[in-house]
Specification:
Blueprint: E1 3-7, H1 31-42, E2 46-51, H2 56-66, E3 73-77, H3 99-107, E4 114-118, E5 121-122, H4 125-135, E6 144-150, E7 161-168, E8 174-186, E9 189-193, E10 199-202, E11 207-215, H5 217-234, H6 244-253, E12 259-263, E13 269-270, H7 276-289, H8 297-304
Parallel strand pairs: 1-2, 1-4, 2-3, 6-12
Antiparallel strand pairs: 4-11, 5-13, 6-11, 7-8, 7-11, 8-9, 9-10
Helix pairs in contact: 1-4, 3-5
């Protein structure tokens, strides 16, 4: 039984509305719902939604309306207080602790290897099939897997985005992944910023992580240790976050895990800025017209249930 952990706790600060439930297709379906549909068709048998207390009711209501009982679902809250013993959040912190912390919040609700994806990125059916096949191999060929995409195919024409820039080694194993922010096209070039705000020039052909991962128990155990070290150094900071790209890059550097980089297959799209919404809706409408997705996603889910 393979589980999908869907990260739906984001604050949607730049987007200006709740991306997790923002209607993109017919029947009010959001990008999140199409990911669940692709995962269900790929063989995933349950979904764990990671959300925030402030939006839990809205996310639950949306899932009940669109996905219904097509597959078992669970809801886990990512809160600032969900920390190891002896740690507490600073009183003025409002930002979540990051995507790696979100995965740790869900880990106790999952048995066996599991996949992780964002709520606001549409990865495509081939990506979920590839990841499901990898996680279903007995024994697992690697402790973790990541579906990779090409940087130039994941940029927004409306503003900067953050991407995990990957370096691949032999047999398409991950050697490193570095989080670069504010990536955008500038006068024919692609530029971004590293953690210190220094400019980074990119070619566009780099493989990037869009947070579609597959994890096994050793990865989660190492992530728990990493999070404690992160809190020991940055726990008093009101803005520091613990992203999956940083956690996995350190594990790879220490040679404690091997991460297979799988091809994405389908073209990715998602939303970061308000102006991305119209293009995303048009892209989704085109895929529905091509027959890649059903006209009525609610009815399609009910057929599974």
């Amino acid at each position: 039984m393979a589980t999908l952990v869907l990260l739906a706790a984001g604050m949607s600060t730049r987007y200006g509305r709740l991306k997790q439930v923002d209607p993109m297709g017919p029947c009010g379906a959001s990008i999140m719902d199409y990911n669940v549909y692709d995962a269900l068709r790929a063989g995933f048998s349950e979904v764990v939604f990671v959300t925030r207390p402030e939006i839990e009711e809205e996310v639950r209501a949306h899932v009940a309306e669109i996905i219904g009982g097509a597959l078992p679902t669970a809801f886990v809250l990512q809160t600032l207080e969900e920390l190891p013993p002896a740690f507490a959040p600073p009183p003025d912190r409002t930002r979540p602790w990051g995507t790696a912390h979100a995965v740790l919040c869900a880990a106790d609700a999952v048995e066996g290897p599991f996949a992780v994806c964002n709520a606001d990125d549409l990865y495509g059916s081939m990506a979920f099939r590839s990841l499901h096949d990898h996680l279903s191999t007995t024994p697992l060929t690697t402790e973790a897997a990541m579906v990779g995409y090409i940087l130039q195919d994941t940029l927004s024409g409306r503003g900067g985005v953050s991407r995990g820039i990957c370096v691949l080694g032999r047999d398409r194993l991950l050697e490193s992944v570095t989080e670069i922010s504010e990536i955008r096209r500038v006068e024919g070039w692609i530029e971004g910023e590293d953690d210190d705000g220094a400019p980074v020039e990119l070619r566009g052909h780099e493989v990037v992580s869009m947070n579609l991962w597959g994890f096994s128990e050793p990865v989660v155990a190492a992530m728990r240790r990493q999070f404690r070290r992160f809190l020991g150094r940055w726990g008093a900071d009101t803005d520091a976050e613990f992203p999956l790209s940083t956690a996995l890059s350190e594990q790879v550097r220490l040679r404690s895990v091997r991460v297979a980089v799988l091809p994405g297959g389908d073209a990715w799209f998602g939303v970061t800025h308000p102006a991305d919404r119209d293009e995303a809706r048009a892209t989704l409408a085109a895929r529905i017209a091509e027959g890649l997705y059903p006209d009525n996603l609610v009815a399609a889910f009910r057929a599974f249930g």
